[in-house]
Amino acid sequence: MDGNNSFQSDILQMEGFNISMEFTYPLFFLIMFVYLTLLISNIGVIVLIIKEESLHQPMYILFCNLSANDLIGNTVLLPRLMHDIVSTPKLISYAQCVTQAFCSHTFGSASHMILIIMAVDRYVAICHPLRYNSIMTTRTVVTLSVSAWGTSLLLVSVLLGLTVRLSRCRSIILNAYCDNASLFKLSCENVTVNNIYGLFFTVLLFSSSMGSIAVTYFRIAVICWTRKNKELNNKAAQTCASHLVLYLIMLWSGFLTIILHRFPDYPDLRKLAYILFHVVPANLNPIIYAMQTKSLRQKIVQIFSKRIMHS
User: Fold this and answer.
1) Which of 58, 195, 228, 264 could form a disulfide with 141 if both were Cys (CB 3.0 to 4.6 A apart)?
2) Up-side HSE of residue 42: CA atoms within 13 Å toward CB?
């Protein structure tokens, strides 16, 4: 229904991916495997950090934030995506769609916020090692984490609040998932306010994260260059490489999703980019940080060694 009349039905239809029958179940099981791997690895990291007192440090608290965010963001996306792959027609209630969009956008904004805090943590650890314990206390990290989540929830609440106020004249989500842009495109009302706030939200999020990380890494690079300390340079490379790789993956997949929203001729590419934005960092986070972080790696090796000896 594409007229200017209000659309009353609470049930929406998801466009989804155009998948031929022979690829339906292979894709379903591939996504299931990816999701189970994501669950096991991220829950494992969280449980390990909570149980091991030696890991009750600011850096590992931030790891927990990142893993928890990855779990939330992908749990609202992947199970629903698996359901839609094998379902015809792909139906979802408006309330469920709004909830998925809210959690998905919170995942994206919280990822940026948490990675900003992690960049600051690495800067203090490398550039002010003697003052690290007094600056990055557990209380400070918890306060920063709560602020990151609170800011993300506030920004996304306003974003979705502006959308749910609109009446609907359409019932088809032209996407494989629910996000803010897909939701306000259901309306035939003037969505200028939504576009302006969406642009403000995106610019604020990306500029603050890019600016903060650029400044902290520039200062780290300057310190390493001026001191010419091999041990310091090795420490900087080990602790910063994983953070930078994950940030760049998340940044470019996010940029790609935003850009492709402006090009309706490539719908499947846009959908794929958005899913990769959720899935790739979430699966790489535990692996990269376990390999780059000596304490975490040692604990994982100890646990597996004990299990092998007892089996």
Assistant:
1) 58
2) 26
Burial class (CB in 10 A: 0-12, 13-18, 19+), 153: middle
**H helix intervals, 21-137:** 21-51, 58-75, 78-85, 94-127, 132-135
Only one residue has tokens 């792959």, namely 85
DSSP H stretches of helix in 128-229: 132-135, 138-164, 180-184, 192-227
> Length of the chain, please?
311
Instruction: Give, rounded to a whole angstrom, the gap between the first and last alpha carbons of the chain.
Output: 62
Cα-based distances in Å from 146 to 73, 75, 142, 217: 17, 21, 6, 24
| 231-262 pLDDT, tens digit each | 767 767 766 777 777 788 778 777 777 777 66
Residue 299: what residue type? K
Cis bond upstream, residue 26 (ω within 30): no
pLDDT in tens, 257-289: 777 766 667 777 777 777 877 787 777 666 666
Q: Are 171 and 186 in contact (CB under 8 A)?
A: yes
What's the order of all strands across the beta sheet hosting 91-93?
A: 91-93, 11-14, 172-173
> What sign does the CA torsion over 205, 281, 254, 278 have?
negative
3-class DSSP state for residue 262? coil
Q: Is 304 exposed, middle or buried (0-12, 13-18, 19+ CB in 10 A)?
A: exposed
